[in-house]
Specification:
heterotrimer; A alpha/beta (530); B mainly alpha (354); C mainly alpha (314); A: 530 residues; alpha/beta; Rossmann fold; 17 helices; globular; B: globular
Chain lengths: 530, 354, 314
């Protein structure tokens, strides 16, 4: 690797550590308007070290790594990187190309891959002179294949990235960094899109990278992952570093307390006898491409939460679109309380008592430029409490919005505030309020807590369980297995458009779900369910 | 290096400052160009101002010129609200004018209270029909309406020529390619004695107020805004996105058609191929200056009309081409576009300290 | 009716078809380059006017023809720079910025022309590009005589199409351009400059558009008229979609279009007695609309096209 003789680090948790430092952040501070996203953060990473950067959504992890990689310039503070001769040099701020040249590699949570290029083209993009002829690429090819083999990152290199699955895309993303000889690799929430088994593979890769003398920063909000890969953990909370310590001797409870900073009570699901069938799918085939389900059947009952697990892109979008009234089945039958017409269109679905929480709230859930009262009214514009003779009843709409703000503890300037000004958690509460306000018979909850902090997540969970108590049937689609196991009465798993289960959730655990998500049949028959 | 930082909420004064600032900046830059070719900016600007508002006659002329601009401005404003880029107002204006001639030049006879509304209605209908193909193309096939509406302008211009040299040619016109005149009963009343100002202006004002109410107070208007800002979320919520787009497109076409009908029935009395000096395109500038707010279209149209009328006077006196006005208006569009940025972003100059 | 088809076998018909196709090819390639990088340039119509006026004026004032072409390209590049500043640096609406550029370039060109020639009634003329007439070319059967009657700008247009096809498909720079039109974040993550690539493509593309305009005044005609561009720019925007963003298909599309247009002109002389000429003149526009409607449904737009991108915002 780099130089051999190195002075010991003057500070930081790695004191006495003989391994050379690769990276040091000093007093990084970044403000966005009122929000102090990073407050004087110091951090050090040594060669061969795996550091977990732990914090809940909104704690400032992404901002910190964006500064490290030059997407943002810090308001104050310096990023220093090993110069290869045993010293550390300051990186010019706000210049991704400088960070790349200094050996910092970033694996973003949202992959930065051009879909119309192949994996190989994405990896070499930007590493060649503008006019290099193609034959000169043979060497590059050999190096990539060698890296892939050594680090357990085998992937098809010659297919357009747009046709690959998420696991393969992530491997290409990592290869991109390694191909540029990244000595520091930053992985931002890398397991969010993987099956537990794929995540194990990733951890193996991370260990191989560390053994190779590279430093890895692993960003996560999941405690179990910290324990699985890291030797040291840094905890961020509300933009500040609240802990920096070796993992040995730190308990999971302690980490949880450090991360959240307060006691959050997760609601508990109480046993409840389900009622009549609300949503029934009989051998339904629908959707296209990767968003397709085939011959899917299940029955969802009153007062029941049915969880849908699966790696994203295995048909969840088609299933959600069916329940939301956006998609009609090609074959088979979908019925809400016996009526197929009820799910003919989004409008029919809303009228028939379907509440919907879309996967991507900013894309499908709200119109950011419209105000709170308008967004809350959007699904039932011709209801008497919203309009009369085609004219909006502004005062009544505002009153409704005020009630929702109170009932759902939405932090907003008022009913006239454009929704785009709200935080992610509060935006989700608007969506939740709209979905729940008419006491729906069926609630579609598609990734209802994605990107929310712990408190907002607990709030959403509480409301979902309360709706279940009132008899609402809930279809919960989530990538968070802990969430599925905690909330669902039964869980079914989607793999390549086919549904396994549903199984009673008491009979499932994370490893079993992982196998099902990877397409394995359950080894012993799990309790069959209708 | 320029950096943009998102603002949480735009200050209220910007809504007013942006258009006025944009026009002022455009005028400043244009007169600087005049100075560069040796024309003193001071007197030139004074001439422009006098020409636009220096006398009752000038004011009436500005108002006359603002009339079609209010209507085409509304056409653009309502369409852009729903993100339907109708750039075909110029063509739709001519369709409206032709329909006005077809109905009002003797095909029907009757009292003014019947004939005038019929002429206007025909113009609006023709304009709405003129936008049908691009609108359906967008909704059904996803064809970019910018290009289709633009290209239709050329088709319609040729169609107008063809009609004026053929079926619509005035037999009494001494061979000129112009239509027969409208009946007296089909003409809009004049607002001021011996001035060209006509009732089309009142029509525009009324429609501006009406559209403002539609946009802010009706279910349809809320749907238009939702579809314009986020069509996916609107569709998810169950709004009829395609139908809203179609309706807005036709409404936009109808307004442009009205502009043409009103020009014929209020001002010219007959149709020629040079009825509009680009009112359709200028309407886009008007709408952008107005921030797509229907009510604000009225003052914006007056501002743009003042530039046109004032530049005419200035041009005649100083011997400068009347294309000067086009230059000012084009610059105003670009400036107001940049100005809109301030509503959502704060501009920071210089790079962060290393 | 057979006369209508016999036209297709006349050499003069193909000479005209290629001449009509040349400015469209320049414009289509210019628009295509910007769109591949994610930037729609509706300034094209005005840039055509600016190129036509600038190139012609430069030659009228005494510059050699090729310097006139360079002057046109420079004027186009300048407009492209403005468009890139508005749409890339400031990330403003590509639609409105482009229309603004068209209005500005058109008004500016007309204004400059009127300032330069305040009182002319007869447009002043220049000596335009002559047909190449290369002897070796005329020796080639069928194609040779048709090509030999074209001016050098036509060959420049064809060479540009071949060059762009090679650039996009075969070079690392082309790779980066295609990537930035699909996902700018992917390009930035690899340390490349999104703004740099987009500026380059928009400026170079605008220069090409302007050369297309210059062809009109310096090759097809020998003077500048108001309204001489008459929608050619918009036709190019439709042709880009029709050509599914590929330079060689753009070449084919422009030729097809030129052939239809030349055919229309000849039919006009055949049938002009009983049909109004305007009906024939509508054909190119209607053809473009039809092409766009047909191509739109299966069009595979560059994913990042028309999406404003600001660093640090996703």
């Amino acid at each position: 690797m780099t130089g051999t003789e190195v002075e010991p680090a003057p500070r930081g948790a790695g004191r006495g550590d003989a391994r050379p430092p690769l990276l040091r952040l000093e007093g990084i501070t970044k403000r966005f308007g009122e929000l102090l996203a990073n407050d004087a953060i110091d951090l050090e990473l040594r060669a061969g070290e795996v550091l977990a950067l732990l914090g809940e959504n909104g704690a400032g992890k992404t901002t910190l790594t964006s500064i490290l990689f030059g997407h943002y310039a810090a308001d104050a503070g310096t990023v220093r990187v090993a110069d290869g001769r045993g010293g550390l040099v300051a990186l010019p701020p706000g210049r991704p190309e400088a960070a790349l040249a200094a050996g910092i590699g970033m694996v973003h949570q949202h992959f930065t891959l051009a879909h119309n290029l192949t994996g190989f083209e994405n990896i070499v993009l930007g590493t060649e002179p503008w006019w290099r002829p193609r034959p000169a690429r043979a060497g590059a090819r050999a190096r990539i294949e060698d890296l892939a083999r050594r680090m357990g990152l085998e992937v098809e290199l010659d297919r357009p990235v747009g046709t690959l699955g998420v696991g393969a895309r992530q491997r290409i993303e990592i290869l991109k960094a390694l191909y540029r000889e990244a000595r520091v690799l930053v992985l931002d929430e890398p397991t969010a899109v993987l099956t537990p088994q794929e995540a194990e593979g990733l951890f193996a890769t991370i260990r191989a990278l560390a053994a190779d003398g590279r430093g890895v920063i692993f960003i996560t909000h999941k405690l179990a992952e910290v324990e699985a890969v890291a030797e040291r953990v840094v905890v961020l909370r509300q933009g500040r570093k609240v802990a920096d310590r070796p993992l040995v001797g730190t308990s999971r409870e302690e980490l949880a307390r450090l991360m959240v900073g307060r006691e959050v009570v997760e609601p508990v699901r109480r046993p409840r006898a389900p009622g009549a069938v609300v949503l029934a799918l009989e051998a339904v085939t629908a959707g296209s491409g990767r968003d397709r389900i085939e011959a899917v059947s299940f029955a969802l009952r009153e007062g029941e939460i049915l969880g849908i697990a699966g790696v994203s892109g295995n048909g969840q979008a088609a299933l959600a679109a069916l329940a939301a009234g956006l998609l009609r089945p090609e074959r088979g039958r979908v019925a809400l309380a016996g009526s197929a017409a009820a799910l003919e269109s989004p409008r029919a679905a809303v009228r028939a008592g379907v509440g919907r929480i879309p996967e991507d709230r900013e894309r499908d859930g709200v119109v950011g430029e419209l105000d709170l009262s308008e967004n809350l009214a959007l699904e039932r514009l011709d209801a008497p409490e919203v309009s009369r003779f085609g004219l909006l009843r502004r005062r009544a709409m505002r009153e409704r919005a005020r009630r929702a703000i109170e009932a759902f503890a939405i932090r907003a300037p008022g009913p006239d505030a454009p929704v785009r000004l709200l935080s992610g958690g509060n935006m989700q509460k608007v969506v939740l309020a709209r979905a729940l306000e008419a006491a729906p018979r069926l609630l579609l909850a598609d990734q209802p807590t994605r990107g929310l902090d712990v408190a907002a997540t607990a709030f959403v969970h509480e409301r979902l369980l309360a709706a279940r108590e009132r008899g609402t049937a809930i279809l919960l689609i989530s990538e968070d297995l802990d969430e599925l196991l905690a909330l669902s009465d039964r869980i079914a798993v989607l793999h390549r458009g086919r549904l396994a289960g549903p199984f009673p959730s008491e009979q499932l655990d994370v490893p079993t779900l992982g196998l099902l998500m990877a397409g394995h049949e359950p080894e012993e028959p799990l309790g069959a369910a209708a | 290096m320029i950096r943009l930082e998102p603002r949480t909420a735009p200050p209220a004064w910007l809504a007013l400052a942006a258009p006025i600032g944009a026009l002022a900046a455009a005028l400043a830059l244009s007169t600087a160009i005049l100075a560069a070719i040796g024309i003193a900016p001071g007197p030139a600007l004074r001439l422009l101002l006098e020409g636009a508002a220096g006398s009752p006659f000038a004011l009436a002329e500005t108002a006359t010129r603002a009339t079609p601009l209010v209507l085409t401005g509304l056409a653009a404003a309502i369409a852009f609200r729903a993100r339907f880029w109708n750039i075909g107002a110029e063509g739709q204006l001519y369709l409206g004018a032709m329909a006005a001639v077809a109905v009002g030049a003797g095909a029907l006879e009757g009292p003014a209270w019947l004939l005038v509304p019929l002429v206007l209605l025909a113009g609006a209908l023709a304009g709405a029909v003129g936008v049908l193909l691009p609108a359906l193309g967008k909704v059904k096939a996803g064809a970019d309406e910018v290009v289709t509406t633009l290209l239709l302008n050329f088709v319609i211009a040729l169609f107008v020529q063809m009609m004026l040299e053929g079926p619509m040619k005035d037999p009494m016109g001494l061979g000129w390619p112009q239509s027969p005149p409208l009946l007296d009963e089909a003409m809009l009343p004049r607002l001021v004695e011996r001035q060209r100002l006509h009732a089309g202006l009142l029509l525009g004002l009324g429609l501006a107020i009406l559209l403002q109410l539609v946009v802010s107070r009706t279910v349809f208007g809320l749907g238009v805004r939702a579809v314009g800002h986020n069509p996916r979320a609107a569709a998810y919520a169950g709004l009829p996105v395609a139908r809203t787009t179609l309706l807005v497109a036709m409404l936009s076409g109808a307004l442009a058609g009205l502009a043409g009908a009103a020009e014929v029935a209020g001002l010219k009395g007959y149709l020629t191929a040079d009825l509009s000096p680009g009112y359709g395109y200028a309407g886009i500038v008007v709408a952008m200056l107005a921030g797509l707010s229907p009510l604000a279209v009225v003052p914006a149209a007056f501002l743009v009309a003042a530039v046109f009328v004032g530049a005419d006077t200035m041009g005649r006196t100083l011997g400068i081409s009347s294309y000067f006005a086009d230059l000012v208006v084009a610059l105003a569009l670009l400036f107001v576009l940049v100005g809109g940025l301030f509503a959502r972003y704060r501009l920071r100059l210089g790079r962060a300290a290393a | 009716m057979s006369e209508a088809f016999e036209i297709l076998f006349q050499a003069s018909f193909w000479v005209a078809a290629i001449r009509i196709a040349t400015p469209l090819l320049f414009g289509t390639l210019g628009a295509l380059l910007g769109e591949r990088a994610g930037v729609l340039n509706l300034g094209i119509e005005g840039i055509f006017v600016a190129g036509a006026m600038t190139g012609w004026l430069a030659v009228y004032l005494g510059a050699p023809l090729w310097w006139g072409v360079a002057a046109a390209a420079a004027a186009g590049a300048l407009m492209g720079l403005l468009h890139a500043f508005l749409t890339v640096t400031l990330a403003l609406s590509q639609h409105v910025a482009g229309l603004g550029i068209t209005l500005l370039a058109t008004a500016g060109s007309h204004f400059v022309y009127r300032v330069a020639f305040p009182t002319l009634t007869q447009p002043p003329r220049i000596e335009p590009f002559a047909p190449v007439g290369w002897a070796w070319l005329e020796g080639i059967p069928l194609l040779g005589p048709v090509l030999a009657q074209q001016t050098p700008l036509t060959f420049l247009a064809i060479a540009t199409a071949l060059f762009l096809a090679f650039l996009l498909a075969r070079t690392p720079l082309g790779l980066a351009i295609r990537a930035v039109g699909d996902d700018p974040a992917a390009v930035e993550a690899q340390g490349l400059s999104v703004a740099g690539l987009r500026y380059g493509c928009v400026v170079a593309g605008s220069a090409l558009m302007a050369v297309g305009g210059a062809f009109l005044t310096m090759s097809a005609f020998n003077a500048f008229f108001f309204g001489m561009v008459s929608g050619r720019g918009w036709i190019c925007i439709a042709l880009v979609v029709f050509a599914s963003w590929r330079p060689l298909k753009a070449l084919a599309g422009a030729l097809l279009f030129g052939a239809f247009d030349a055919w229309q002109v000849r039919l006009q002389t055949l049938a002009g007695a009983f049909l109004p000429s305007q009906l024939f003149l509508m054909v190119p526009y209607l053809l473009s609309i039809a092409a766009l409607l047909l191509a739109a449904r299966r069009a595979d737009y560059p994913r990042a096209l028309m999406k404003p991108w600001r660093r640090g915002e996703r």
